[in-house]
Amino acid sequence: MKVGIILLLIFIGPVFARGQEQKSAAEKYFSDVELMDQDGRKLKFYTDVLKGKIVAINTFFTTCTSICPPMNRNFEKMQEAVGDRLGKDVFLVSISVDPETDTPTRLKEYSKRFHAKPGWLFLTGKKENVDWALYKLGQYVEAKDDHTSIFIIGNEPKGLWKKAFGLAKPDELIKILEDVINDR
Amino acid sequence: MIKKLTLILLIVIASVLAHSQSQRRELTLQEKRGKAFYLRGESASGKEITAMLGEVDVPATTLTCAGCHGNRGEGRTEGGVTAGNMSWAYLTKPYGHADEGGRKHAAFTESSFVRALTSGLDPAGNKLAVAMPTYRISQEDMANLVAYLKRIETDTDPGLTDNTLVLGTVLPDKASLHGLAQSMNDVLQAYFAEINSRGGIYNRKIELRVMYGDSKATVSNAKHLIDDDQVFAMVSGLTAGAEDGVATLTQEKEVPFIGPSTLLPQRALPLNRYVFYLLPGLKEQARALTLFAAKKIDPAKSRAAIVSPDLEFNRSIVATIEEQAKTSRWSTLTTKYYPRDQFAAAQFASELKQQGVDTVFIAGSGVEAAALLKAAEAADWTASFYLLGSLVGRNVGDSFSAKMKDKVFLAFPTVPADVSESGAAEYTALLQRNKLESTHAAAQASAIAAARILVHALELCGKDLSRERLVTALEGLYEYDTGLMPKITFGPNRRIGALGAYVVTIDTQKKLFPASVEWVAVE
Questions:
Q1: Residue B171's domain is classified under what CATH number?
Q2: What is the pTM for the complete model shown?
Q3: Which residues of B touch A140 (CB under 8 A)?
Q4: Strands B76-78 and B81-83, how do they pair?
Q5: Is the CB of A66 less than 8 angstroms away from the CB of B81?
Q6: How far apart are CA B443 and CA B170, in angstroms?
Q7: Which of B345, B353, B403, B518 meets the CB 3.0–4.6 Å disulfide criterion with B371?
Q8: Which residue ranges form the domains of chain A, and what is each CATH number?
Q9: What is the pLDDT of residue B504?
Q10: Chain A residue closest in CA terms to B75
Q11: Is A101–B493 a contact, with Cβ atoms under 8 angstroms apart?
Q12: Is ipTM beyond 0.85?
């Protein structure tokens, strides 16, 4: 396989599809820890960020000078491709792995660099809450430099989740996002 | 005979080598230009260089070499992506390279390096790691970059050699302020001399360069220290009246400045990474005072007033109180200005009393505050009064009676109890050992505190010192106790070590200062 296009397509499968009780399995799994976006709004992780949405999630930190900017540049390309659907059913979610440094004010400043529109959330919060959300996504790391270069792209209502390499070409990432939107 | 000559020759060569190693060689113009590209993606031509990553092209200024490969070209791994070592010696090591992914190639040459940067291929023709951009870069810029990479390992920040570390400080004019400058210089020199006599810091002796002058000369003095004396960092000193200029200068030159004394620290966003203030300024104290007042009375049911002379300096403090009062949801807040030297205290007191004002913030001087407090007492007006200790001084306690003692609150950046027993003992011992006098004790204490914090951070950095490392070490300080002032905490978003203020009362009968003390932290 060419190094340049390592695309990891991992089907986690519709494991959440059967949640018929009061709390769905997904809600139980992800939980509703409190996070905060770049506008200082408090958000519940499952209910406000994931539930009923199609999401592309990446991890980053604002003081990162190496791979975070190109990864978020790819998010910007995905934002363009999604067009009007952004903020309706499709959301981009960038979670900081350095919540103590990345205050909402800092995130707001950073989001402007990528021309983020409403519907692209930059998330921070209390460290233990952010750590928990990251842990549930399999993205928790001890040191911020160890954060992955993986995008998690999921269709929560359909229970379809894929992973993609965050430094892949924008076209390839957009195709995966479209597949997830169309439950393919 | 020949043997003896050879020996002497060897000794001479060795000493010349040793000497030249400790001397920092200036970068050539070409190396400087290469460094500008390496660190910031800037072209010597002034034109923009484009970096291509996949199909995305961005200015090279956003995808710099240093961003991934490190300021010193040491290489590092992030997000599973490894950026290799960029020193020329490493790139050209004769037995070539085999990276973690199994990619193998021979040593780089200048031409294969150029190809790697412009086409993304290594000397063996393999594609480079996907995170490595390609650059549309001119031959001249490329030559500059190669020249710098040949030097990068030995390129240290200014003011730094293997055995010296040059620091700078800006002090007021020697003739003014009753010899304040001399007092601060004396303790700083003594403090660093003692560190040096114990071997310095990682074998580096500290040299302190000092410039004296009034506030108009502060910025040009600091500039002289940075540009001409090539100081590594700045420490202590007085920057009052030149806050903006000094902040801009340190930011532009990327020179850390630890513990400048000022009443108005600059903390606007985006944050200035390089200036580390120890104590809160007037605005932070005003904020703490307002927060404290909001705990004393329910702001929703209170009528508050700010009384201030109509001067730009005081207006900026008033604005801070107004802002904080708004955040605390104060129901009514009126601001009354008066021309300096024309403060009709009695009239103010009767008017405000009539309006039912129960909380008064005074942003004026000691004389003005005393006049208002006296007038309030005379008018039997039982409001609470909030004062800034740095503006009014503690002698304001003489102007009101015991009846008012629980109604007058003063904010201070530091209180006598901050000076610990060991802190005081060390201060006295330093003076005694160096046959110095305790003059301007508060200023001397703040100078020693700044020096102590800097030395502590330098020790944390280790021998491999850089300005960037120093900033990171300082950012890591948590509740560091100098024994001379409140505990100091910095962070990535925090540049005031003691962020808050003490709010104190004065017992006028027992002449007790302070009678009660509470530390109020500010976000």
A1: 3.40.50.2300
A2: 0.81
A3: none
A4: antiparallel
A5: yes
A6: 13
A7: B345
A8: 3-15+24-181 (3.40.30.10)
A9: 94
A10: A66
A11: yes
A12: no
